[in-house]
Predict the structure.
Amino acid sequence: MPANLPPQYYEEEKKLKEAKTPEEKIRIIENMLAIIPHHKGTDKLIGSLRAKVAKLKEERDKRPQTRKGIEALYNVKKEGAAQVLFIGFPNSGKSSTVSALTEEYVEIADYPYTTKILQPRMMRYEDIMIQLVDTPAIGDDSTNLWLGNMARKADLICIVVSVSEDMSVEYELIKEELTPHIRETRNPYMVVINKIDLKEYNSHLERFEKELKSEGTKWVPISAKHLKNLHELKEEIFRGSRIIRVYSKMPGKKPDMEAPFTMKRGSTVLDFAEGIHRDFVKRLKYARLWRRDILNGMMVSKDFVLEDKDIVELHV
């Protein structure tokens, strides 16, 4: 065994011995590969682990279609401008929050573990649609089937906790579950504090908010039941998803303000051109840009960084 492997590697190695499903083993080995330092002494180990991943994926793909159909219930394809994952413990109000934000029915009950599979719903934010995914409660038997895959690919994760004496503990436990899955991608997360109408827990709420502020984590206090602060939550979901809207304009015509292109924050004019058509990348001569009242048809370079609600006119 090569020297200088960090303690986290051996922790993952222990988990691998206990793992049962190919998906779980693949996820753990991928975590191990992310942890291993790259140098000559680890080349053989890295090659061996990569071979194991390939073999496990081959084994997974050979399973019956019925099994694959079951797994599809725990893997939601992204639709809309962004995909946002809502996770939390039983009765935290995940489903109520998703339902209130999207105005679409999500099964809700007073007993725990009502949500059995991933349930995608679409939330309108101004002129775009954002996909919200309600999930089975943390601790459900299906958690290991969806958490890793969905957490890694989501644009934003909303940790939902309800106002109570135990909200800090619940939050720390959820973070512990999430950490192995978001280490590589650095996916952002925010906290949704639900049931702020329960005034008897005000002192606990204030203490928890101070904790979040001290660690630099964004949070939004809401009441899904009374539809309180939902507009603020929509705003923060949009910001947290790290997307921008860019509107196209044909030379000599008005811009198309009805169907914006959604792009990752930090995207450039060249990225926008590629999003419209790959040929534009080679043929692009220059672009003009309109930005609120600051810029009015100014010529910009290909690497000019775009902002939300920019209007771009491409010249090829």
User: Anything to note?
Assistant: The chain has three domains: 7-63, 76-240, 243-315.
